[in-house]
Design brief:
The protein is of the alpha+beta class. Helices cover 46% and strands 13% of the residues. The chain is elongated and about 100 Å long.
């Protein structure tokens, strides 16, 4: 009903070219980048073009539209000219009909060229897009030693091609959408029809259609709106700039959401295990990559727990430390004017400031600021007697552990959780430390992504006969990894039947 009502409110194009031109002029009032071009064809049949300057291929418009129409349609009558243009004259373009002025304006803003003609109650919408772009460059946030180096760009058409060239299968489907209420942005949903779950696909489509926000300019915005547990610091959708990673997700039965003007795509659903996997894991031998994955999980634990554990042991339970270590820590703290908790919090915040400064500064300077700044501040603080050497080591180890994890979104969640455990450890000692870890585990257990438990396959792995455990903390040889994971259709996983 809503769709029919919307269609009724849209103004239909009439055969009066002067009225059509006036209406389009009103729609694009004060829009200096919108070009109107009048010309004639056949027996002096008036036509005009509308397009957005610098968003179209001007040479193609001149050669394929203007020259062809004016030179090859001299004998055509007004009646039936537009169908002739579509079928015989205009070459090299995807040509569609636009029957309302709203659809025509939408086409102009998306980079198409609209052709209006006297006596026709619709306009032709020729695809002439030619956006400024930076081309396909190297991946910057997900760097690998071995494997493809290309990354997504801000142009949706390029990103679709980067995935399509990796999966040359007719079952790879693309559904296009418009998202946002004011700044309508192009979006696309990609999936493999024989693997994707129909209910999951329908839910994603419905969510994209119902996104009520003025402008969705990046996948980061869409990710926050698509997540179910929006108050959680942990991401429930995965983002990547690597086409090979997106292609691998599609072959697992997952869905890829792409947005124009964004060099990242969304992979869904997502579980905690996926955030500890890197594209390079599958390009190296399984033994070394299994060892590195174990290191990532250990590093994640230390990134969350190490500062709180140090506070709990040094303040409340020093007897649990080896005697020599406890004496050494006490000796270095003799002239420190602040409490252990203050030391840890100040050093952790200093490290956060250095991290943020390194991100905002130009790349040639950022690495120098991060390394040199950390060394200078740590050494100066120890020499000044403001913090103990042990706290500097704890903060440095915690920071290094966060760099081991390949996904920045999950690192942000771990960084926030760290401060909660620091608070509980400073109040209740080891009891608070374990309570903090328990709260964290309970929170992660309560999360889900499109019906998939967040801690899968560490829980509920029997649903898929424990096959997904082969690609979890330890990555078994590729022949042992189940091709159809829990994300795909159930019949695909079991019998392999389409």
């Amino acid at each position: 009903m809503k769709k029919n009502q919307k269609q009724k409110t849209e103004k239909q194009i009439t055969g009066n070219i002067l009225e059509s031109r006036k209406t389009m002029k009103e729609i694009f009032k004060d829009c200096g980048d919108i070009v109107f071009r009048d010309f004639t064809a056949g027996a002096h049949i008036p036509l005009f073009l509308v397009f957005t300057d610098n968003m179209v291929n001007s040479a193609s418009i001149e050669e394929s539209i203007l020259n062809n129409v004016m030179n090859r349609c001299r004998e055509e009558e007004a009646e039936g000219l537009l169908p002739v243009l579509t079928e015989q004259v205009i070459s090299g373009f995807d040509v569609q009909k636009a029957e309302t002025f709203e659809k025509a304006a939408e086409g102009v803003l998306s980079g198409d060229t609209l052709i209006f003609m006297e006596g026709s109650n619709y306009a032709l919408r020729a695809s002439t897009k030619s956006f400024p772009n930076r081309g396909v460059s190297k991946a910057e946030t997900e760097v690998v030693v071995q494997g493809p180096k290309d990354a997504f760009t801000e142009l949706l058409a390029f990103n679709l091609v980067l995935i399509r060239r990796r999966i040359q299968d007719v079952r790879l489907k693309v559904k296009r959408k418009k998202v946002g209420t004011i700044g309508k942005n192009d979006a696309a949903i990609m999936y493999l029809s024989h693997l994707v779950r129909p209910d999951m696909l329908a839910k994603v489509e419905k969510q994209l259609e119902n996104l009520q926000l003025n402008g969705i300019l990046d996948t980061g915005t869409a990710e926050q709106l698509l997540e179910k547990h929006r108050m959680s610091p942990f991401p429930q959708l995965q983002m990547t700039e690597r086409p090979d990673k997106a292609a691998a997700a599609l072959m697992e039965g997952r869905i890829v959401v792409l947005l124009d003007n964004s060099p990242f795509v969304i992979l869904l659903p997502a579980t905690l295990n996926l955030f500890f996997q890197a594209a390079e894991d599958y390009y190296e031998r399984w033994e070394i990559m299994s060892f590195i994955r174990i290191l990532r999980y250990v590093a994640a634990f230390f990134a969350v727990a190490l500062p709180g554990l140090y506070i709990a042991l040094s303040v409340y339970h020093p007897s649990l430390l080896p005697t020599a270590l406890a004496v050494q820590i006490a000796k270095t703290r003799l002239h420190i004017p602040f409490s252990v908790v203050s030391e840890v919090v100040v050093m952790e915040l200093a490290f956060e400031l250095l991290r943020e400064a390194g991100i905002r500064l130009p790349s040639p300077v950022s690495s120098t600021i991060g390394i040199v700044g950390g060394i200078i501040i740590g050494s100066a603080a120890v020499e000044a007697g403001l913090v103990s050497p042990a706290v500097v080591i704890i903060s440095a180890l915690t920071g290094i552990c966060t760099f081991v994890i390949p996904n920045s979104a999950i690192v942000s969640g771990l960084r926030l959780s760290k401060y909660g455990i620091i608070l509980l450890s400073s109040l209740f000692g080891l009891f608070g430390f374990w309570v903090g870890l328990l709260f964290l585990l309970v929170h992660l257990s309560g999360l889900s992504s499109y019906g998939i438990p967040y801690l899968y396959p560490f829980c509920s792995a029997t649903v898929n006969d424990d096959k997904d455990l082969a690609d979890s903390i330890i990555r078994l040889p590729l022949r042992k990894i189940n091709n159809h994971s829990i994300f795909g259709k159930r019949k695909e996983k079991k019998g392999g039947e389409v």
